[in-house]
Amino acid sequence: MLKDKVAIVTGAGSGIGRAVALAYAREGAAVLVSDLTAPGGEETVAQIRAAGGTASFFAADVADPAACEALAAAAVERYGRLDIACNNAGIGGEAAPTGDYSIDGWRQVLDINLNGVFYCMKAQIPRMLEGGGGAIVNMASILGAVGFATAPAYVAAKHGVLGLTKTAAQEYAAQGLRVNAVGPGFIHTPLISGLEADAATNAMLVSLHPIGRLGRAEEVAELTLWLSSPAASFVTGAYVPVDGGYLTR
């Protein structure tokens, strides 16, 4: 499906990012695995190579525009081109009502979850256009479509990711570049491990998903893979939930 393609995945040291990187590599892409620190990213690379795929690691802080530029440049330097990017890196941030939310906490979440997507896209788009186009999938959230008490920064950032996705899709569709966003529900990943550890909180989260369980990273990865592939050639500017029915409530 992705034979001879080159992909970047940010936040690929665990969870959804790792699952996306593994899926891309399984379908033939060379994957530049990126994360803030090396151990998780190197483990993702090792898993890809063990399965016969092609991958390498590049440490990058997506809140740093220069790091995002260096990441995109590294994909071209190592593999000759850039065709696909999954901008997945993100954090949950503190939990507090809007009036009590810390300024530093707000800035940190926006810097990583929204500014980081912009910085990455700004670096990725010119390189994709040089190769005749490509596909970008931005990892949004169900909270890009609805509110969630005590998560104002996360919700605002993910709403922003959707606006950025739709705008870029309009700007570059005629040049062969598709830009879409995925909206995961609550997924079994390290990001929510603290919430799952509390039985009552976990039961509450499960109850919000009509399918009756939380999602798996691999389920998000399969949707991301499809949106990144030629099978989705007429899909751009879309926001596609993968949420077990959360948004039907």
Kindly summarize this structure in a few lines.
The protein is α/β, with parallel strands linked by helices and 249 residues long. The protein has helices at residues 15-26, 38-50, 65-79, 103-130, 152-172, 193-197, 199-207, 217-228, and strands at 6-9, 30-35, 54-59, 84-87, 134-139, 177-184, 239-242.
Question: Key terms for this structure?
Answer:
249 residues; alpha/beta; Rossmann fold; seven-stranded parallel beta sheet; 8 helices; 7 strands; 15% strand; globular
Secondary-structure blueprint of this entry?
Elements: E1 6-9, H1 15-26, E2 30-35, H2 38-50, E3 54-59, H3 65-79, E4 84-87, H4 103-130, E5 134-139, H5 152-172, E6 177-184, H6 193-197, H7 199-207, H8 217-228, E7 239-242
Parallel strand pairs: 1-2, 1-4, 2-3, 4-5, 5-6, 6-7
Helix pairs in contact: 1-2, 1-8, 3-4, 4-5
